[in-house]
Amino acid sequence: MNGKMHQRNFVYKLLWHLVHTVFTIFKCIHDIYLQLECKLIEWRLGNRCEAQILDNLQKATAKLKKMPKHLTILLGTEEPSHNDLAKLVLWSLTAGISFISFYDVQGKLKMNEEELKESVKRILPKTANVIWHNPECSYKNGFSGPKIHVQVLTQKDGHKALVETCKNLSKSNLEISIQAVDEDLRKQYKFPDPDLGIYFGDYFNLCGYPPWQIRLTEFLNIPSHHNLKDYKLINVLRRYNKCEQRVGK
């Protein structure tokens, strides 16, 4: 009896090791295939000029049924690459996205915001307008041609907004409620709540992103924003297009 049980356990272990080995080999082959596919796409698209990239982006996004009005970018722990983030602004403008915000928990992008503005200015078509927002000032209407609103946020901006809301509600005669707090925060941010959020890196972490803004945000991943290719943004927009946002239903 014990001999049969020992033999049966040996067979089970052998089968388990066999399945594990097959799965490991399959995963390795799959990972190699994905890497080769990415390299092939990069090789095919690597020699295109900027006009061809924008034309391809416009054609690809024109086929989508829905586009985010506000795209928010979570840098995570990555060092900001101003040239690549500038491309995101231009590509978002081309895709018809009206608002884009960058959230950098480290605050480095905010400290060097002028460099980002210069990087955007170098690649922006003369007919297009980028409208930069910050909590201290507001923009004026009157821009002609395509435009996109841009905002750089840090963790401190979320703290400041809560402090200002507390001050505003304490001075007013309004009853303090969730609705009153929500309305005041919206007035401060001026941007609509983001529809789509892109985070970089292997792990999703909000890193203190203001939670009242992302109740309905769909978060999707791109491994890194360094040396970013347009097809990666297109893939994210296609994935977002397939998402069903139930808005709490």
TrEMBL record:
Enzyme Commission number: 2.5.1.87
Keywords for the protein's UniProt record, in alphabetical order: Endoplasmic reticulum, Magnesium, Membrane, Transferase, Transmembrane, Transmembrane helix
Major localisation: endoplasmic reticulum
Required cofactor(s): Mg(2+)
Reaction(s) this enzyme catalyzes, per UniProt: n isopentenyl diphosphate + (2E,6E)-farnesyl diphosphate = a di-trans,poly-cis-polyprenyl diphosphate + n diphosphate
Cleavable signal peptide: none
InterPro entries: Nus1/NgBR, UPP_synth-like_sf
Pathway where it operates: Protein modification; protein glycosylation
Location within or outside the cell: Endoplasmic reticulum membrane
Family the UniProt entry places it in: Belongs to the UPP synthase family.
PANTHER family for this protein: DEHYDRODOLICHYL DIPHOSPHATE SYNTHASE COMPLEX SUBUNIT NUS1
Protein name: ditrans,polycis-polyprenyl diphosphate synthase [(2E,6E)-farnesyldiphosphate specific]
Organism: Nicrophorus vespilloides (Boreal carrion beetle)
